[in-house]
Amino acid sequence: MNFEEEFKEFIKEYEKSGFVSQELLKYPRLIVNENKVLDIQNVKGVSIRTKKIGKRLKVCVNVKKGTKLKMPIHMCFGVLKEKMTQNIDVKLTLEDSVDIKILSHCFFPKSKNVTHIMNGNFVIGKNSRLIYDEEHFHGKKGAKVYPHIRMKLKENSYFKSAFATKQGVIGTLDINYKLNLGKNAAADVFTKVLGRKDDKIIIVEEMNLIGNNSKGLLKSRVAATQKARCIVKSVMKGIGKNTKGHVDCTEIIEDKGMVSAIPIVEVKEKTASITHEASLGRINKKQLETLMSKGLSEEEATEIIINGMLR
Amino acid sequence: MNLLSLKDISVKKNGNTILNGLNLSVQKGDIHVILGVNGVGKSTLALAIMGITKYTGKIILENRDISKLSITKRAKLGIRFMRQTPPSFEGIKIREYIKIDSNLGIEEIKKTLKKVGLPESYSERFLDDTLSGGERKRVELAAIIASHPKLAILDEPDSGIDIISINKIKSLIKELNKNGTTVVLITHREEITSIATKASLMCNGKIVKSGTPRDINKLFKKDCKGAKL
User: Fold this and answer.
1) A interface mutation test: which of B50, B66, B72 has the most A CBs within 10 A?
2) CA-CA distances (angstroms) from residue B193 to A309, B184, B198, B210?
3) Inter-chain CB proximity A290 and B100 less than 8 Å
4) CB contact B70 to A (< 8 Å)
5) Which of A291, A299, A307 is the best residue to mutate to test the B interface, defined by the most B CB atoms within 10 Å of its own CB?
6) Do B200 and B33 meet the contact criterion of CB atoms below 8 Å apart?
7) What are phi and psi of B135, to 5 degrees?
8) Among residues A115, A277, B136, B163, which one has the fewest Cβ atoms lying within 10 Å of its Cβ?
9) Where would I find the beta strands (DSSP E) of B28-93?
């Protein structure tokens, strides 16, 4: 398959997911199949460069000082093959006073044994703002995905992320985020996952509120149905003065699913305040009965509740 | 004509008798108020009719024994239930919630929300815990109005609603009834009986008397307020 055919095939499969459209192709973007770059579009202020080192693909995204984009930067890392290991290293640097959104898609529609390893190293400059949405599209057999991100937020910066599995069976998911927040920085990390079949899900998120007055929220919503297993470890540390953090974890199970939560909340400064709430267990009975008293079956009501929670 | 008959309904929880051989008949087309002080088993009665709580005895809807039917099947026969404290739902928009049980378009949903005293913009809001208990109650009432049920069981629709809005809620219940829904209205406030066509007094897990709203109100004031019968 030549480059053009591969690109067309990729876009065709991508559109089949129903979650993407030609609209995305208008955005500044990076589209990768396996470890080949199919398309790069830069815009003023944004530089996306790639380099292949052995089987790894290194991606450097640099956003110049003062850049503010209305449209998101679209990044898609896909594998159309059934078997393959995709290794991506992403270095994202937002210089000062940047305001952007990144929409990141991970796309493995035919996976039987695809492994996707993404090591991210993000730096958010002073007074910068990054909205980062990561959405996963898997096939019926699942994949093994390892999104690991290390992030530094400088003074007055803001980061908001949402991770969601949109389609298919997960397989193995190992999320590992570590964020260090500087003075007056704020971060809001929201992870939504639906586990089915034999999915194995490990979510480890750590937020270190190092700078004075920094604020953080770690929020997770997980449903483990059938035989899915899920562990959520949330670490929030109040290190700087007047830091505020909150951990909010809701995990529900159905069938033979299993969930566990390991919250670690730590305060090293007397003016810091860290709170935590967790709810684990079956679907709320009152919610279920209320929907059933509208004529829905128990299965239909359960689906609505889970979909709502993961929205 | 009887729409709903309850025969010898008993509920026990943790060794305590909540409903004790309760009998009740509700006529088609009525607004039938169940009046009683707190703790006499009114909400348990509502849960039993909807099939949410376990009970002994028989429940007949239009000559059909529905005692063994599930919540879903009872709902499919046209029974709807508004809890005293409706739950919140994360990630479900109010318009989506109302659509679960109706064919209303967005404009009609907005109109229904307006009717229950909520801004039209609430159609896009989530039915989560950012809404107050009173607001969730109004949404539930809107959902019931939109679904045109045969029988609506409303558990304390007036609680948590400000005094000014109570008259609005009362007129909505009347309108619901006018449009063909028989209403069982559970309350501990005698003022609400003003919209009733029939009333029953409940004490200690039993209906002790049924009659005109005026008579039941008098009896309630005389014998129930401040002390259980």
Assistant:
1) B72
2) 39, 11, 8, 13
3) no
4) yes
5) A291
6) yes
7) -70, -40
8) B163
9) 31-35, 56-61, 64-65, 79-82
- Using the Cβ of A310 and the Cβ atoms of chain B, whether some distance falls under 8 Å is answered with yes
Residue B188: HSE in the Cβ half-sphere, 13 Å Cα cutoff: 16
Residues 46-65 of B with CB under 8 A from A: 50, 52
CB-based contact, A298 to chain B, within 8 Å = yes
pTM of the model: 0.84
Considering only CB atoms, A289 lies closest to which of B52, B100, B147, namely: B52
Whole-angstrom distance, CA of residue B64 vs CA of residue B82: 23
DSSP A254-273: -TT-EEEEEEEEEE-STT-E
Between chains, do B75 and A309 touch, taking CB under 8 Å as contact? no
Q: Shortest Cα distance from B208 to chain A (angstroms)?
A: 28
Could you give the C-alpha distances from B32 to A93, B106, B174, in angstroms and in order? 68, 32, 11
Closest CA to B24 of B2, B50, B51, B56: B2
Residues facing residue A116 across a β-bridge = A86, A145
Query: Tokens 């046209």 identify what position?
Result: B78
Spatial contact of A235 and A264, defined as CB atoms under 8 Å apart: yes
Find the distance separating the first CA and the last CA of chain A, reported in whole Å.
38
Question: Which of chain A's residues have a Cβ under 8 Å away from the Cβ of B100?
Answer: 291, 294, 296, 304
CB nearest to B100's CB, from A286, A289, A294: A294
CATH 3.30.200.20 fits domain B28-52+70-224:
no
Amino acid, single-letter form, for residue B104? L
| Domain residue extents for chain A | 3-285
Using alpha carbons, select from A250, A205, A206, A260 the residue that is nearest to residue A228.
A260
Tens-binned pLDDT, residue by residue, of chain A (311 aa): 677 777 778 788 777 777 666 777 778 999 999 999 999 999 999 999 999 999 999 999 999 999 999 999 999 999 999 999 999 999 999 999 999 999 999 999 999 999 999 999 999 999 999 999 999 989 899 999 999 999 999 999 999 999 998 788 999 999 999 999 999 999 999 999 999 999 999 999 999 999 999 999 999 999 999 999 999 999 999 999 999 999 999 999 998 999 999 999 999 999 999 999 999 998 999 999 999 999 999 999 999 999 999 88
What amino acid is encoded at B126 in this protein?
F
Give A-chain residues touching B70 at CB under 8 angstroms.
292
